[in-house]
From TrEMBL:
GO biological process, one term: cell wall organization
Protein name: glucan endo-1,3-beta-D-glucosidase
Domain spans labelled Cell wall protein YJL171C/Tos1 C-terminal: 222-452
Catalytically driven reaction(s): Hydrolysis of (1->3)-beta-D-glucosidic linkages in (1->3)-beta-D-glucans
InterPro entries tied to this protein: YJL171C/Tos1_C, YJL171C/Tos1_N
GO function term, MF aspect, one: glucan endo-1,3-beta-D-glucosidase activity
Residues making up the signal peptide according to the UniProt record: 1-21
Residue segments, region Disordered: 161-221
Coiled coil regions in record: none
Domain annotation Cell wall protein YJL171C/Tos1 N-terminal: ranges: 36-98
EC number(s) given by UniProt: 3.2.1.39
Bias-annotated ranges (Low complexity): 161-218
The entry's keywords: Cell wall biogenesis/degradation, Glycosidase, Hydrolase, Signal
């Protein structure tokens, strides 16, 4: 589904020796260093995408109109749905927002608890700086877009991969690490990525990272949990899948196939009403998704825009600043089917599944860049390396396969579970995907969230 332009491919080839020196090429994808966190910087831009306005069953066609957006985190500040593909067992999921009436604080002003830890932990972090499209001349040197010899190449990210370092971060003792510059591409998998990191020296890349904003996602009185799931219990969220027309919800047509539907407790079947997922391991190539518990008919929460007729339509999770937490396992299975043993967790602009997630590209906004964020994705069958990548038009000349990513990876939790937080910080345009520990209680203090950020950011000298 993701493509690499010829110009991008040429750039990747020119950097191949750098990749080969520090990364492994497996199953069509590069994998570099294991990481505990990925921080996306400079997220959000001004652009537009084609939004669906109608779906015509008689002609099997869809109409679209242009929708413009701008600002911090855009278009990922729009409502998002959260998607899961097996083999996967979900143990916890939650959504948090900052407590109302509190402004975001600078990391250096945070509670002292965020600066002093009495434990040690191996931490590695990858930094992805999402940039605008770069133009080069015939020699590969940067030029203005108006230059007659200019060619657009999608050098969309600069990736820093500090070595895993045992740290005990305090105000007086920040961790220091070595930093390596890498370049990589992936051309396989349902959500594979094409990214080029800086070909300059590590010191140049490090300088770019160190000049970023240092504001923190923690607020003065913390974060409130608005939606939460544990097996058998779902509070203010709705499980769905793609079984429309089979079990009392959603619809089916020869034009557009099965719509979304309520998901049964087994995670695989459809249902006629909302159900909480049981403690189940969903098998390979089976998917479900999570929306909020608020129906689109509740206009007090804003408009969902156009969505397919006769579906259970719910709002997603919007906002510049928000946090998602997960606890999950991804055990191996022996499936040889399409997407066999390739689990994934990702986010989509919630408009996409409410129209057509798979099928005619004119029937969703996905192809024109309304937003996808791959959080934890296996790119080849049986792999134990989870990749993250942002897909929208930023940095890729309007191509939805752009954005940025890293070939550093999280270790797949095949036994036991992985806990993680995904933190959108609209105040400084950063997006953090971070392994965490501790409980996901109904409220989280600013010091707790800032500790999660601090443990990773300090390794890259961002604190």
């Amino acid at each position: 589904m993701k493509f690499i332009s010829q110009a991008c491919a040429a750039a990747l080839l020119s950097l191949a020796p750098l990749v080969a020196a520090s990364c492994d090429y497996v199953g069509g994808n590069y994998y570099c260093s294991e990481t505990d966190a990925v921080i996306y910087q400079n997220v959000g831009y001004s652009g537009s995408y084609q939004d669906v306005t109608s779906m015509d069953e008689s002609s099997c066609s869809c109409s679209q109109e242009s929708v413009s957006f701008e600002g911090s985190m855009s278009p990922l500040n729009e409502e998002l749905s959260v998607h899961f593909r097996g083999p996967l067992e979900l143990l916890q999921f939650g959504v948090y927002y900052p407590s109302s009436g509190n402004s975001l604080k600078k990391r250096e002003d945070c509670d002292v608890a965020t600066r002093h830890h009495d434990h040690k932990r191996d931490v590695a972090v990858a930094i992805v700086h999402v940039t605008s499209t770069m133009y080069v001349d015939g020699n590969g040197d940067p030029v203005a877009s108006t230059n007659p010899s200019a060619t657009a190449i999608y050098t969309t990210s600069s990736t820093l991969a500090p070595a895993s370092t045992t740290t005990s971060a305090t105000a007086d003792d920040e961790a220091s690490t070595s930093v390596s510059s890498s370049a990589a591409a992936s051309s396989e998998g349902s959500s594979s990525s094409a990214s080029v990191s800086s070909g300059s020296s590590a010191s140049t890349s490090s300088s770019s990272a160190s000049t970023s904003s240092t504001s923190s996602s923690g607020t003065g009185s913390g974060w409130n949990r608005v939606s939460y799931y544990t097996p058998g219990s779902a509070n203010n969220l709705t499980f769905m899948n793609h079984q429309g027309g089979t079990a009392g919800s959603g619809t089916w047509s020869s034009c557009f196939g099965n719509s979304i539907s309520y998901c049964a407790a087994d995670g695989v079947s459809g249902a006629g009403s909302p159900q909480a997922l049981d403690q189940v391991t969903v098998p390979s190539n089976k998917e479900y998704m999570i929306f909020s518990g608020v129906k689109c008919s509740d206009t007090s929460s804003g408009s969902c825009g156009y969505y397919r007729d006769d579906i259970p339509a719910y709002h997603g999770f919007g906002g510049d600043t928000k946090m998602f937490v997960f606890e999950f396992s991804m055990p191996h299975d022996d499936s040889s089917s399409y997407n066999g043993d390739m689990p994934a967790i990702w986010m989509l602009n919630a408009k996409i599944p409410r129209t057509l997630q798979y099928g005619n590209s004119d029937c969703s906004c996905w192809g024109t860049g309304c937003g996808e964020l791959d959080l934890f994705e296996i790119l080849s069958s049986g792999s134990e390396k989870l990749i993250t990548h942002l897909h929208d038009g930023q940095g890729d000349n309007g191509n939805s396969q752009g954005g940025g990513g890293t070939q550093d990876y999280f270790e797949r939790p095949t036994s036991g579970t992985l806990k993680a937080a995904v933190i959108f910080d609209g105040s400084d345009q950063t997006l953090h995907v971070v392994k965490v520990d501790g409980d996901f209680s109904s409220t989280l203090s600013a010091s707790t969230v800032n500790k999660w950020l601090k443990e990773s950011a300090s390794v890259a000298n961002l604190s």
